[in-house]
Amino acid sequence: MDKYIDERFERVQRALTSLIDSITKYTPSTTQANDLATADRELSDGLHELQKHQNNYLRIQELKKETEDLDAQIKSTVTLLWGTRKEITSTPTTSYPSSSPRYDFTYSDLLNYARRISRFTMPPAGVTNGVDLSARPGGQQQQQQAEQTPVTARSDTPNPVANGTPIPSTSQPQPHPDDTSQPPPPQDYPTALPPHVSGWVNNSLGPASFYPWPNEEHIRSGALDTCQRLAAAGVGPQGYDP
């Protein structure tokens, strides 16, 4: 760039010297004046190029400084990562002895096994809504209660007499059954599940609804939500009496 500007200055100097000599010798020429004007325009263009060059140089210096800062940041980050890795690798691992026996099966095997036996498994007591599945049918239960009802024996008290006329007894003597002569009736137990329980073990009746957690309505009707509302209102839940 310095050589480029020096050439422009030398051309202006030559054109100016030639014009001055022609004026001194009283032989002025328009050609020499035009050469000086052309050299001056070229010098102006060269100065504009020099300005662009200086601006680009300053921009390059800024980029170099930014690059150096980024390099330093990268180096510090890599150094921090290396130190962290060194600390992690130098930390001793804790080995817990196995206190329980280990089995050669995975949770997938357990889930598959549970899926196979689910149709043959009875639901918990909470699912049956309090229905005793081992209870006998109503007819058999009434028959058993009738059989277990003791028979009233004939009273030895004489019949009361009203106005000298004996009053006939309203109770008829019942023969006392011989308990040892008849075998006890067979006990029959139900072999079918109630309709509201069959859906849990029989997939053909339709998929049963299963909720692993309570819904929002049940949560809002609980004690925790009540305590939350009292705390939001500024009332202490402890000792609160509505």
- How do the helices and strands follow one another from N- to C-terminus? HHHHEEHHH
Q: What structural class do you assign from the helix and strand content?
A: mainly alpha
Number of helices: 7
Please give the order of strands in the largest beta sheet. Answer: 1-2
Radius of gyration: 57 Å
Distance between the termini: 93 Å
Per DSSP, what share of the residues sits in E-state strands of 2 or more residues?
under 5%
Low-confidence stretches: 150-165
Pfam families: Med4
GO molecular function: transcription coregulator activity
Keywords: Activator, Nucleus, Transcription, Transcription regulation
Subunit structure: Component of the Mediator complex.
Descriptive account of the structure:
Pfam families: Med4. Keywords: Activator, Nucleus, Transcription, Transcription regulation. One of its GO terms (biological process) is regulation of transcription by RNA polymerase II. The chain is mostly helical. It has a domain at 2-63. Helices cover 53% and strands 2% of the residues. A two-stranded antiparallel ribbon has the order 1-2. Strand 1 and strand 2 form a beta hairpin. Helix 1 (2-24) runs antiparallel to helix 2 (30-90).
Describe the structure concisely for a colleague:
The protein has 242 residues and is mostly helical. The chain contains 7 helices and 2 strands.
What are the salient characteristics of this protein?
transcription regulation, two-stranded antiparallel sheet, 2 strands, 242 residues, mainly alpha, single chain, 53% helix
